[in-house]
Amino acid sequence: MLPRAIRCGAFLLIVAAIVLYAVFPFYWAVVSSLRTGQALFSTSLLPRDFQLDNYIAVFAEQPFGRNILNSLMVAGLTVGLSLILAVPASYALGRVTFRGRGALLFAFLGVSMFPQVAVLSGMFEIIQSLGLYNRLLGLALSYLLITLPLTVWVLTAFMRELPREIEEAAVVDGASPLILIWRVLLPLMAPALVATGLLAFIAAWNEFLFALTFTLSSETRTVPVAIALISGATGYELPWGNVMAASVTVTLPLVVLVLIFQRRIVAGLTAGAVKG
């Protein structure tokens, strides 16, 4: 048996290696975004001088502010639709006993296993037939294919763990199913709603394939597509400083959101893991 000090030291080394592996790419993107010219190719871990030229160029040379607004609108609409549809679905799957409930849950899981490219052509036909091509609403509806299965699964697991006595007491007091969900269960589901909502927001914010396929003009593009289409003055060179600045700009808000809601995220995702 190894001494306690050695075990603690080994554990700290492993944690430090994992943190370094996860955080260093983002740190290097921040450092590179503050460099210009030949300094971009420097291997120094710290920039000698902080310059914001790349951040200014990103917003000056293309409608990047509009692209960020598009991503916010699409991600917000996706989260809202996902939660509106998933809450009653999770109540039915978690509280109501009916034949085929398990098969339906696995059907939700099976949909999430399909790669996006496998359903791209069919989704394109649906979006085009609805007249939603090159529209933000079309993107939000297509993103439900990604976010809704996970949202339903997490909320269903959380719904199963809520005490039935609360529901029975509300029914005895005359609460209808809608009032039961809205005024009784939703406040108790706050950790799961925050966790699934934030995961859906991140998935919609980072999605690239659907956004590239279902949008055409720069006014409707989201930030992943806008970053991928950044080019230099000649159209052939890739301005790495601008790319890094754009990447940091769209990543930093997600990092802040995760840090703010980390407790609720953990509580929501671990719901149902322990019974007792």
User: What's the architecture of the largest domain, going by CATH?
Assistant: Orthogonal Bundle
What structural class should be given to the helix and strand makeup? mainly alpha
What radius of gyration results from the CA coordinates? Answer: 23 Å
Number of domains: 2
Q: Number of DSSP helices?
A: 13
Largest sheet: none
The proportion of residues in beta strands is: under 5%
Number of strands: 0
What integer is the average pLDDT?
84
How far do the termini sit from each other? 33 Å
Could you spell the SSE succession in H and E letters? HHHHHHHHHHHHH
| CATH secondary-structure class of the largest domain | Mainly Alpha
Relative helix content: over 70%
Uncertain residue ranges: none
Q: What coarse outline follows from CA principal-axis ratios?
A: globular
* CATH-level-4 superfamily name of the largest domain: MetI-like
CATH fold assignment of the largest domain = MetI-like fold
